[in-house]
Amino acid sequence: MRIGVQLGYSGGFKEAVGHLVELERVGIDVVAVAEAYSFDAISQLGYLAAKTSRVELLTGVLPIYTRTPALLAMTAAGLDYVSDGRFALGIGTSGPQVIEGFHGVPFDAPLGRTREVVEICRSVWRRERLDYDGKHYQLPLPADRGTGLGKPLKLINHPVRTRIPISIAALGPKNVELTAEIADGWQPVFFYPERAADVWGEALEAGAAKRDPALGPLDVIVGASLAIGDDVEDRLQWAKPQLALYIGGMGAKGRNFYHNLATRYGFGEVADRIQELYLAGRKAEAIAAVPDDLVRHTSLIGPRGLIAERLAAYAEAGVTTLLVGPLTADPGESLRYVEELRALLPG
Length: 347
Hints:
alpha/beta
C-alpha cells in the first residue's frame, strides 16, 4: 500500500509545501492537491514539482467541465514534463453546486463526458491528430470540417510519457463501473472499508469484466484523516466539519452525492438531519450531528493497535494508495503520525 498526503485548498499552501519536503524525506509516495472553488490545483502542483524530487503529484481532482479535454491533456503533459514523469491526472465531475453555481457550466452527461475526456486525453498524449467524433465532443467542430479551420491538430511537444495515469473520482454505481472499466485509478471519498463492497462491489465487478488487461490492476486511492496516539480521541471532532460540509452543504436536496453516499452507508436519517441543519445556516449544529461512528470508520484516528486494525481493513477492501490528512497543527506531530503509519503498514 502506498502512502501519501492530501494538501488542503483553503490556505497556507506555501507553508504546507515546506512541510511536504520533510514528509518526502520520511518516505511518502504521493501528494494530492484538490481543486474546488479555491486556488487552482495546477499552479500549486507546478510549484510542488520544483520543490520535490521523488513523490508522485496527483490532482485530487480536476472537474472535467471546467477545462476542455484537450486542455486537460496539455496540462497533464506539461506537469509530467516539469516533474520528470511524476504526474498523475485525477479527474471527476464534481457536482452541480460547483459546476453550475461557480463556473456557470451545465452539469450534464457526466458518464458520457468522462469517457470521452479519457479517450481524448490518451489520444493527445500519443500525439495523434485530434479527429474525434463523439457525442459530447467533436474535434474539429463539424461546421469546420473540410475547411482550413477543420484540419485536425496534434500536440506539438513530445510528452515524457504517452500514458499518464488517469484516476477518476466516482461515487455512483454507473460512474464507478465506468471507472473500473477505463481508468488507471479510482478516487472514492469518505471510504468506509467494511461497507465498501456492499456499496460498490457489483459496480466494480461489472467494470472490471470490461477492462482492458493492458491497464493493469485498478489503483484504489482513498483519503483518510490521521491521528495516532492514546490521547487523540478529541481529533474525531476535528474531522467533522468537512463531513458536515459535504454531506450537508455540497448540493441541494436530491442533488448531493455525498449525502447519498452517507445514506448508502446506513446513515440516512443522520444525513438528512445534517443536511437540514446545514442548509438552514446552522453549521455548528450540523457539525455536532455528525456521528462519531461515521468518523471512526472513514478515518485513522486512535491508538497504534486500532490503526493497525484499520489498515488491515483498508487492505482487505482493496485499497492500494492511502492519502492521509494529519489532524494536527504541529508539523512535528504530523511527521510523527506519518512515520508511525508507515511502520504499521501490513506486509
